[in-house]
Amino acid sequence: MYASPLSRRAVLAGAAATAAVAGVPLPGGRAEAAESEAAPAAYRWRNVVIGGTGFITGVLFHPSVRGLAYARTDIGGAYRWDDRTDRWVPLLDHIGWDDWNLLGVEAMAIDPAHPDRLYLALGTYAQPWAGNGAVLRSEDRGATWRRTDLTVKLGANEDGRGTGERLLVDPRDSDTLWLGTRHDGLLKSSDRGATWTPVSGFPAVPSATGQGVTLLVAAGRAVYAGWGDGDGASANLFRTSDGATWEAVPGQPSGTAARVPIRAAYDRHARELYVTYADAPGPNGQSDGSVHKLRTSSGTWTEVTPVRPGGTTGGGGSADTFGYGGVAVDARRPGTVVVSTNNRWAAVDTLYRSTDGGRTWRSLKESAVLDVSETPYLRWGEDEPKFGWWIQALALDPYHSRHIVYGTGATLYGTRDLRHWAPQIRGLEETSVRQLISPPAGKAHLISGCGDIGVLYHDRLTASPPRGMATDPVFGTATGLAQAARRPAYVVRTGWGDHGNGAYSHDGGRTWAPFAAQPGIAKDAPGPIATGADGSVLLWSFVHWDGTRHPAHRSADNGATWSEVPTFPKGATPVADPADPALFYAYDTDTGTLFASADGGRTFAARASGLPSGDSQFKLVAAPGRSGDLWLSAKGDGLYRSTDGGGTFTRVESCRASHTLGFGKAADGADYPAIYQVGSTEAITAVYRSDDEARTWVRVNDDDHQWGWTGEAITGDPRVYGRVYLATNGRGIQYGEPVR
């Protein structure tokens, strides 16, 4: 309930990925060197620690190297486990702005015979507005890459993203790879992923809207492929024994509970292939499912479903509907297998473990002791954490029979004794971040508004916030976050919540209370909010998730009562003047017009017009401590500035493009705040700092630290010169500091 693909992911329509040619390996994970404008300033970049927060869609332990594992996410790249430091190492931070669509990892593949080889199939969306997918291949466990661009699209953040690996090294030949696609059938490579061709003899017919291949798995010398476009009656599991001819697997299960093969795992000792099924690809929408095993030596199928979905549960008699998701076998103990339920909201998802080949099962949830002290947000504002939801990624360490990990919509839980579970998430940060505030005073240097996990108060940058998510009320996704410039203890937030959609804080964001009332439209269309410089006035704008805009509302009594502001441009983001409590601003992106209010937000009138227009991605910000000093990031149309409260704007000639902008502590001897932006001065979209009011810029990130699309929010620290906080769409909050 905290992580639907629409609520937690900004669908970046219009930002089409630019394809690149295959590149030679370079240090630091780069596939090719970006065009360089000037040597970047020496900065150290790290994640602000939250811990996970995104959908972990796959985990692979390497079968021949102890302690080597990989994880994939739907929008936040891939990771390698460093067993020496107990941390995940990000492998795709070099992905740049133009290639943002490649931060979603559709599938991973490892080569059992060559432990240093790793393959990734990348592509976040298969929609017409998204770029094609790509395959990255590495000979050094992801330290460097070679890249091949595909002519098809992949969908790492679409339905079915938690199904099995769609990429596989052929068990007979390490030079041969298979890649299952959603809409273009099965592809094959005979040169270790450098080139790809369609498999003409694959029996299933691709659909423009279906799931296509859902899994590829080796069982002995055979390769099996799951197919997600069936109707429950037709074949959905195919195999090849020679790499040339494919056939439907005889005797395979049918019916609604076996409509979509989700994942598969092969017990090589018992020569049995376990397959989990559901009536939909998931992670949402599953209500039925089953587990079956195939004895490959005889072709005999046996149903081994732990619990059949159906019936009711709980005091309210809720329907106990769900599908089956992950499956893993014990490489050391024949007949030991673990499976997961998925989308089981009434009784809560669990893992079932069997030590006798599926004849009997034990649920691990009931005896589980969950320790989320390292990532307290996992309590979701309640007393105790849940065992999990969206459990499709599941892996069992081939060197430790009781070391199990499973992914959820927010974390990766692990155990080494089947009883005590804790997040195994250090280094893995997948938050989609929407708003950032760096307060000028107080304990916290950062407050963030995020997808799925609402608002966080960061006591320390190196530890997950000890208070977890902001409560009273709990939000799923934050839509607005604002601080009174002259009264920084007062902070307000808005977002999608079940018990109110707006709240305020009188202690700088540490604790919260809900607004006493909210406009009726707030329930269905919470949007951005602003508070005047002294906190006496609130302006709340309303935008439905489908883009419908509604009139803004104003409150002068801390949210106890609200009145409509008819002259405010519908759907615009309100901006408060940081010095004058009576002044507010709004940018109408439809008409390219700046609106302003001089009466505390009661009425708005047009000022400058003829400015860039088009969509809602333009960002208007006010320089701290100055009245009427406004900056407009207008994407590819550049950067504009007004020093007269929006009466006139002048284009900043030093910028070719500007996507988001913020301010931080001024450099020594400077009388204007440092300016930070995501934009470009010539060719490269990057992170820049200016210490001279945007006359000149210095790049502060580098080719190894790009994080895909970073156009949502950026701010400097008003107390620490040079420190900058950057919101990403899937790699959490990055913060950079000059190397001294």
Automatic annotation (TrEMBL):
Q: Which residues cross the membrane?
A: none
User: GO biological process: any one?
Assistant: polysaccharide catabolic process
Highest taxon of the source?
Answer: Bacteria
Q: Which SUPFAM superfamilies match?
A: Oligoxyloglucan reducing end-specific cellobiohydrolase
* Protein name as it appears in the record: 1,4-beta-glucanase
Gene3D superfamilies according to UniProt = YVTN repeat-like/Quinoprotein amine dehydrogenase
Keywords of this protein's UniProt record, alphabetized?
Carbohydrate metabolism, Glycosidase, Hydrolase, Polysaccharide degradation, Signal
Give the source lineage, highest ranks first. Bacteria, Bacillati, Actinomycetota, Actinomycetes, Kitasatosporales
Q: Which family does it belong to?
A: Belongs to the glycosyl hydrolase 74 family.
Chain segments carrying region Disordered: 279-318
Name the InterPro entries for this protein: TAT_signal, WD40/YVTN_repeat-like_dom_sf, Xyloglucanase_GH74
GO molecular function terms here? hydrolase activity, acting on glycosyl bonds
